[in-house]
């Protein structure tokens, strides 16, 4: 048998072998994708720098550019020298993971759909879509509870419309409210006119009232309670990793810090907001706040997601 013929046969067999390996890997990946649609999420991997890397089973190491879901029973390796943030889906607690490390977490399916744990189709089917109301003013932050004593106040505003705002001490009606006239969001509490300290008190109830400038009718109102661990030095994070961790922690608390979560999410880069973690957080927060357009946007992004 001639050497060229043997060479051609060797090349053919090599090509067949490579094709079979690739086909097997693709089939396996398709099966994994099908399985993950019905598997609960145990945690989320969040990149913190350009050295955030991870290695799924049977696949080479790759850089982690956006948050990634770690599903129950999934095995991942963090290479030596790599580091990332691991956010637990059940508690919202975050921890720094530095490689080399192996990740394998288990998470049971909750009895009722949970925004950060349950499969996305269940979330989309369980969350009630907020009703759409034209030109409605909605206070988006702070709402419910906040850990900020000088919070950034935000609300949905019509284009070209200015607003008057008042923040009143709900526990003492004789204390004059903090006020601002003819403003648009966002506005820091410390910039409101007041004879009081330019910060909120710890573990105290407040009411926020908003109207169109010089109008006689209140357009929106919200109650909030500052947490027992609220501090003046608490500031909104600046990096995407810290922002998404803040939003997750705010929703994991009972009762939730809904406004704090929305404030953090509204500062995320678009690609982070469209990540699986970003989408899940947006679905929950927009449903809680009654933001119909933002909920529809999050739902669209959720249906466009491709799980690993």
Short description:
This protein is of the alpha+beta class and 308 residues long. The chain has seven helices and 16 strands.
Strand content: 25-35%
Q: What is the alpha-carbon Rg in Å?
A: 25 Å
Through-space gap between termini: 47 Å
**Oligomer state of the chains in this structure:** single chain
Strand tally, please? 16
Mean pLDDT comes to 88
Global morphology:
elongated
Low-confidence stretches: 18-35
- The H-and-E topology, N to C, reads as HEEEEEEEEHEEEEEEEEHHHHH
Q: How are the strands of the largest sheet arranged? A: 10-16-15-12-13
What does this protein look like?
By secondary structure, the protein is α+β, with helices and mostly antiparallel strands. The protein has 2 domains: 41-109, no CATH class; 139-304, no CATH class. It contains 7 helices and 16 strands. The chain has a 5-stranded mixed beta sheet. The chain has a 4-stranded antiparallel beta sheet with strand order 4-1-6-7, covered by helices on one side. It is elongated, with a radius of gyration of 25 Å. The two termini are 47 Å apart. The model is unreliable at 18-35 (pLDDT under 50).
Task: Supply database-style keywords.
alpha+beta; 16 strands; 308 residues; five-stranded mixed beta sheet; elongated; four-stranded antiparallel beta sheet
What order do the helices and strands come in, and which of them pair?
Elements: H1 3-36, E1 41-47, E2 53-56, E3 62-63, E4 68-71, E5 75-78, E6 83-88, E7 94-98, E8 101-104, H2 120-126, E9 139-141, E10 144-148, E11 152-155, E12 163-169, E13 178-183, E14 187-188, E15 205-212, E16 220-231, H3 240-252, H4 258-265, H5 270-273, H6 276-289, H7 292-304
Parallel strand pairs: 10-16
Antiparallel strand pairs: 1-4, 1-6, 2-3, 2-5, 5-8, 6-7, 9-11, 11-14, 12-13, 12-15, 15-16
């Amino acid at each position: 048998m001639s050497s060229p013929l043997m060479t051609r046969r060797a090349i053919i067999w090599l090509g067949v072998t490579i094709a079979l390996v690739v086909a097997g890997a693709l089939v396996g990946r398709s099966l994994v994708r099908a399985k993950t649609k019905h598997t609960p999420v145990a945690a989320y991997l969040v990149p913190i720098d350009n050295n955030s890397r991870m290695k799924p089973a049977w696949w080479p190491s790759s850089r982690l550019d956006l948050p990634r879901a770690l599903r129950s029973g999934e095995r991942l390796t963090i290479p030596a020298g790599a580091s990332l943030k691991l956010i637990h889906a059940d508690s919202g607690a975050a921890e720094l993971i530095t490689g080399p490390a192996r990740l394998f977490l288990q998470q049971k399916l909750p009895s009722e759909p949970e925004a950060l744990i349950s499969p996305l189709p269940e979330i989309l089917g369980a969350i009630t879509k907020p009703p759409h109301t034209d030109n409605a003013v909605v206070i988006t932050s702070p709402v419910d509870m906040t850990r900020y004593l000088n919070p950034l106040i935000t609300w949905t505003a019509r284009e070209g419309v200015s607003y008057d705002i008042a923040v009143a001490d709900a526990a003492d009606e004789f204390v004059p409210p903090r006020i601002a006239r003819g403003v648009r969001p966002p506005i820091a509490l410390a910039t409101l006119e007041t004879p009081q300290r330019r910060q909120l008190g710890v573990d105290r109830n407040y009411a926020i009232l908003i109207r169109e400038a010089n109008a006689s009718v209140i357009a929106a109102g919200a109650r909030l309670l500052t947490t027992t661990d609220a501090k003046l030095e608490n500031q909104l994070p600046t990096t995407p990793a810290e922002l998404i961790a803040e939003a997750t922690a705010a929703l994991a608390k009972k009762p939730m810090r809904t406004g704090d979560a929305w404030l953090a999410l509204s500062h995320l880069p678009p690609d982070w907001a469209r990540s699986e973690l970003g989408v899940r957080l947006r679905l929950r927060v927009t449903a809680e706040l009654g933001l119909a357009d933002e909920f529809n946007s999050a739902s669209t992004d959720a249906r466009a997601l491709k799980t690993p």
